[in-house]
């Protein structure tokens, strides 16, 4: 079930929060907010009261108006929407579930119901979060960003890896904007900090003849997980932004930064400028130039990762001197 606080008043609350934010640390008069939103001052007051009840701290001073003091660390569709750039494609519809099996499942349903691209579905908690290669994805409540995006790129299925290249690049940039942390990318889709995984991407693709019908871009970011939230088996390989930075990260701020960045990079990709993204990706990717072991099903490929091809595949120089193109797999970086 979607969380109640996101139902009904989406446009009004988004407008109110946007207007309050546009004043920075200043006040906005009730009359100005009422004008912008096209409703009465009394109706604004009611909405402000209900925002306060879900954790927004909004100061009210006679003759000055309202000031947004702080916002809760909850995923609220109207709040995230109020932080997005104008005319976004990704993020034009946002839904938040308190709990669901997997946000990829929800977006897969939207994808097959002919919903337009750009919808983003978050869950505060996933009961059956899925990772790559049939693994599960730990998704504790209110500690991370677990979400999926519906895309319908005008790409042939062979170029679908470009979406993963794009998304991993967007994630590194957004994490840096919000936390100052410089993360890196482990091909094909892991985001690492100090060598440990902080975020992952799971894409599920529907094709029609030689065309992509949809891509469900599922993203999991370990934001405020503490060491105790991670299972013992992952303690050496996984981490979170909070563990690495030593402080809590405000998830709605990060959610909006990720959506804005994805939207901007998706527009770059859609205009045919993949090389701009690929160059950024190569700067962030720590796999290139390293000796790697890649498990592809039952096959093991060992060699030196030399480059990423235009379709997103990894070019590996094997021990026998051959250049192999690897489309996907599980990579271990050798020391
Ligand atoms: C991986 O690195 O193995 C990919 C992890 C992807 C996890 C995200 S969380 C949101 C979306 N829903 C899922 O069930 N999985 C993805």
Would you identify the CATH H-level superfamily of the largest domain? Bira Bifunctional Protein, Domain 2
CATH architecture title of the largest domain = 2-Layer Sandwich
Q: Indicate the structural class.
A: alpha+beta
Unreliable stretches covering 5 or more consecutive residues: 1-10
Domains (count): 3
Which SSEs are present, and which pair or pack?
Elements: H1 10-22, H2 30-37, H3 41-53, E1 57-61, E2 65-70, H4 77-82, E3 93-97, H5 103-112, E4 119-123, E5 144-151, H6 161-179, E6 184-186, E7 190-193, E8 196-208, E9 211-222, H7 241-245, H8 251-270, H9 274-284, E10 291-296, E11 299-308, E12 314-318, E13 323-326, E14 330-333
Parallel strand pairs: 3-4
Antiparallel strand pairs: 1-2, 4-5, 5-9, 6-7, 7-8, 8-9, 10-11, 10-14, 11-12, 12-13
């Amino acid at each position: 079930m979607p969380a109640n606080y996101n139902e009904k008043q989406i446009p009004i609350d988004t407008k109110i929060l946007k207007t309050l934010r546009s004043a920075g640390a200043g006040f906005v008069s009730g009359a100005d907010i009422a004008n912008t939103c096209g409703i009465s001052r009394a109706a604004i007051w009611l909405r402000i009261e209900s925002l306060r009840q879900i954790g927004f701290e909004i100061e009210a001073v006679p003759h000055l108006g309202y000031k947004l003091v702080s916002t809760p660390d909850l995923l609220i569709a109207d709040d995230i929407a109020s932080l997005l750039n104008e005319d976004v494609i990704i993020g034009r519809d946002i839904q938040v579930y308190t709990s669901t099996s997997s946000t990829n499942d929800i977006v897969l349903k939207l994808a097959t119901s002919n919903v337009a691209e750009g919808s983003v579905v978050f869950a505060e908690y996933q009961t059956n979060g899925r990772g790559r290669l049939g693994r599960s994805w730990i998704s504790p409540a209110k500690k991370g960003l677990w979400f999926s995006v519906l895309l319908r790129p005008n790409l042939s299925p062979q170029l679908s890896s470009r979406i993963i290249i794009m998304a991993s690049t967007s994630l590194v940039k957004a994490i840096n904007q919000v936390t100052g942390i410089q993360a890196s990318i482990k091909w094909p889709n892991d985001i690492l900090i100090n060598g440990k995984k902080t975020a992952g991407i799971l894409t599920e693709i529907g094709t029609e003849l030689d065309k992509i019908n949809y891509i469900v871009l599922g993203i999991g970011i370990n934001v405020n997980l503490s060491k105790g939230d991670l299972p013992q088996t992952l303690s050496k390989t996984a981490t979170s932004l909070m563990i690495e930075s030593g402080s809590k990260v405000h998830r709605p701020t990060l959610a909006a930064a990720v959506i804005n960045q994805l939207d901007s990079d998706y527009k770059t990709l859609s205009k045919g400028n993949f090389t701009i993204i690929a160059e950024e990706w190569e700067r962030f990717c720590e796999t290139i130039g390293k000796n790697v072991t890649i498990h592809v099903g039952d096959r093991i490929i060992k060699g030196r990762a030399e480059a990423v091809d235009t379709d997103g595949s990894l070019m590996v120089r094997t021990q026998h001197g051959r250049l192999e193109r690897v489309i996907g797999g599980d990579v271990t970086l050798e020391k």
